[in-house]
Amino acid sequence: MSDLRQIEELLASFDSTPGVCGGEPCIVRTRIPVWALEQSRRLGISEEELLRSYPALRAEDLVNAWAYVRSHRAEIENQIRENEEA
């Protein structure tokens, strides 16, 4: 698979809608923000626990979320910080 195709598939996994979760990137089909998944992972919550806690979430969603976090590190750090302060 080409790099461009992989990027297109990754971006299709997320939705940022003004007025929904503050416009923050969420897993498509859900209102689960990527930053919340990353914060949960940092707190030691396993992927299995995340999948149990969010029935609409799929294992492939987590793979894509972690890739998004890697490529948007500063954005995710800011969102985590802003939501901790709220």
Tell me what you see in this structure.
- There is one protein chain.
- By secondary structure, this protein is mostly helical.
- The chain has one domain: Winged helix-like DNA-binding domain superfamily/Winged helix DNA-binding domain (Arc Repressor Mutant, subunit A, Orthogonal Bundle).
- It has five helices and two strands; from the N terminus they run αββαααα.
- Strands 1-2 form a two-stranded antiparallel sheet.
- Helix 2 packs across helix 4 and helix 2 (34-42) crosses helix 5.
- The longest helix is centred in the last third of the chain and has 13 residues, at 59-71.
- The protein is globular, with a radius of gyration of 13 Å.
- The chain starts with a helix and ends with a helix.
Annotation keywords:
86 residues, mainly alpha, two-stranded antiparallel sheet, 5 helices, 5% strand
A few lines on this structure:
The chain has 86 residues and is mostly helical. The chain contains five helices and two strands.
Number of strands: 2
Write down the CATH class.
Mainly Alpha
Structural class: mainly alpha
Strand content: under 5%
* Count of folded domains: 1
Tell me the CATH architecture. Orthogonal Bundle
Helix content: 55-70%
> What is the first-to-last residue Cα distance?
41 Å
Number of H- or I-type helical stretches: 5
- How many whole angstroms does the radius of gyration measure? 13 Å
